[in-house]
Amino acid sequence: MKNVRIWFKKDCECRYISHLDLNRCMLRALHKSKIPVWHTEGFNPHPFATFPLPLSLGFRGENECMDVRLEDDDYSFEEIIINLNQCLPRGIRAFSVTEPLMKAGRIAYADFTAVIESENASSTILAEKLREFYSQDKIEIEKRTKKGSKVIDIKPSVKKFEINEKFEFVQLNLILSAGSTDNVNPNLLFSAFEAFSGISVDAEITRNDLYNSDMELFR
Amino acid sequence: MVSKDVEKLLLKVQKPGRYVGGELNEVIKEKDSVDVRFAFCFPDTYEVGMSHLGMKILYSLLNSKDYIWCERVFAPWIDMEKEMTDRNIPLYALESGDPVSDFDFIGFTLQYELSFSNVLNMLRLSNVPIKSSDRKDLRQIVVAGGPCACNPEPLADFIDLFFIGEGEEVDLEVIEVFRKCRKEGKSRSEFLRLCSQIEGVYVPSLYDVEYNDDGTIKSFMPKDNAPAVVHKRIMKDMNTSFYPDNFVVPLVEIVHDRAVQEIFRGCIRGCRFCQAGFIYRPVREKTPDVINEQCKKLCKNTGYDEVSLSSLSSSDYSQIVPLLEKLTEWSKDEKVSISLPSLRVDGFTDEIMNKIKTVRKSGLTFAPEAGSQRLRDVINKNVKEDELLSTCATAFDGGWTTVKLYFMIGLPTETLDDVAAIAKLGQSVVDTYYSCPNKPKGKSVRVTVSASSFVPKPFTPFQWEPQDTINDLHIKQEHIKNSITTKKIQFNYHDADTSFLEAVFARGDRKLCRILELACEKGFHFDGWNECFNLDEWLKLFEECGIDPSFYANRRRSFDEILPWDHIDYGVTKEYLIKECEKAYKNTTTPHCRLKCNNCGAAKYGEGVCFEKCKNMV
Q1: Is A28 close to B249, i.e. CB distance below 8 A?
Q2: Whether A92 contacts chain B with CB within 8 A
Q3: Of A80, A167, B288, B311, which sits 20 to 30 A from B529 (CA to CA)?
Q4: What domains are there in chain B, each with its CATH number?
Q5: What is the pTM of this model?
Q6: Segments forming the whole domain that contains residue A181
Q7: In angstroms, rounded to a whole number, what is the distance separating the alpha carbons of residues A142 and A130?
Q8: Chain B CB within 8 Å of residue A71 CB
Q9: B256 CB-near residues (< 8 Å, 6+ apart)
């Protein structure tokens, strides 16, 4: 028995399914593929799979991962990729299998690309406003918790905020805190921007990579 | 596949995974390489429509022909509908993302009357003229089938042709005629005339209806050689009948998210309120071997770990135990569970219970339908109270602690005593639990009693009956509530308002087309959903048209009245239905098809249960 980390892309139609649906989809594909993964031993046995860091609905994922336990140590990684892909919808493609080097709890940062457009502002204005927005000392947002809502400053959680002005849109390269302790969803940042600038934006967001606290790639 | 325009909306609506397609096993073809494009429309949400077996069968069947591409269309939920209309995005099919208006056929399945407003709304959202007479070319042929096609009249102005009965063969025959007509450059009306000659096809525009002064039908006249009576089609041999070995596996959770295996069609019972029990006659079974093979393939191709055996009454399958034995041989190793819905009270044996327990313990639901024995005899639900109680005892001994009981109120001849008997029966089930020596230790029992309102349906012995008024139904609901004295019984009841509208359309005639047209103009939709249904708004439409809805819902018809669906034949004769109705009023039951043939008329198909005995004798 060994733990393996299956790396996949989540794109196309599958961008629009929630983490719960992704989980269901993966379990069904694992079941169908007959890959010898360890099953839970409860009343309704099902393949045991965990996701180090769930992806929000609507985001494209370039380097997503799922951990399973392989019962047959000799089962090749290539076979996992081929068999799993035959059982997955076209929007989810496995492309690599590794032995996990870090535990899920090590995840500290995530790297995003966001394409920002607005119906009522040109890319020049958008870029300018974004620069202004980021130069604030604090970026405050209202966060709703179980105990009620409170205002928090998310600027310390933004490690990179790179603005690239393109012809019809602005491309943002972001590195934000991620993981179980401090997690900033890029959408939070954009709603703060909307409140700041009064410009409503459409954002197409891709999560590229995950990092640990030393900014080493999560593997 | 969705367009860029649609992608912009997807993050603004709930559960966008419903609107994108791209599921495992969806069928993608090259649109230029097919002759016929068929948009299979389910007039409800994705989650409901994707759970429907008929759609899965026909989707696979049509796509098995290389000259047809069948795609799926569902009604967008109200948030998505609004976003689409605001941006002028027409309704599109999930596979190609192409607008529905591009299609040759636009087919609807009619599962319940309250979806009629959605049928028209989906045409409107597609920018397809809703009225048949406004569609001129040989394209956008709007067809419909399913149980509600048995009384097609309320939709007569909108649907070009109806499929009466089972669709596996007749769909393809109509498509063949279409290909021929297109090749020969024939007109839409010529095409429809040719189709009317196919058995099982009803073209409403080829019939003229005249009415009496009292609003009843005076005459119903075919023209252009259309048949005076349209006979339903059935699949005679279920073993060789097309069955998909593959389902589209949804990305988002749907209502019935599992593989579904049909085990037989029809029902031997003949409960007098049940339309399905009459229109799907005769009972035709698949053999256990066929079912077993089909189940295996479905699980293999979909990855589902649950199969539900589907039929109107699973425990009436003549070889249920051998079948379960076959299935459990492999299902455990494959980690697949088998569920067996639609169990009858008298069919739940120890043997069946132990078989379904080995895989997964789901809830138990029984449908006594009426509280008193007298009323159960009236409706021919041949179930006795002691059978129900001993079945419940078996279940409690087997570890179950919750039972759901389904009832109907408003049945013909029903009195308040019959209604109170519902509560009493629920209490007896509770008492049975506490007298069971092997009941689960330290657990309490929960009995759910659900009461829906009876809706008289065409092709049943009660098709002439008045429905109780909404007020009567409310009194009966209250009466049950007040008759329940224990907290161990949870009582639910269905909204009487929706049942009333359902009754109006179930037995409606062509005059109701005007109502539906107005409803469409006003944007009515999702009337099967509490969020959208508003009886007062509907009543305003009836008033505006000068039509009294109680004429359809609450009026007793005489046996000699011409009914709006009299020109449709489902195999069961009117004489038989009259005889059954008369027996109901004498509290007399009728034995089921396997005990005795009662000459309902369905034997004319020469197949199924009507001939089981003869075969066995040979």
Answers
A1: yes
A2: no
A3: B311
A4: 4-231 (3.40.50.280), 363-511+547-570 (3.30.750.200)
A5: 0.94
A6: 106-211
A7: 19
A8: no
A9: B51, B308
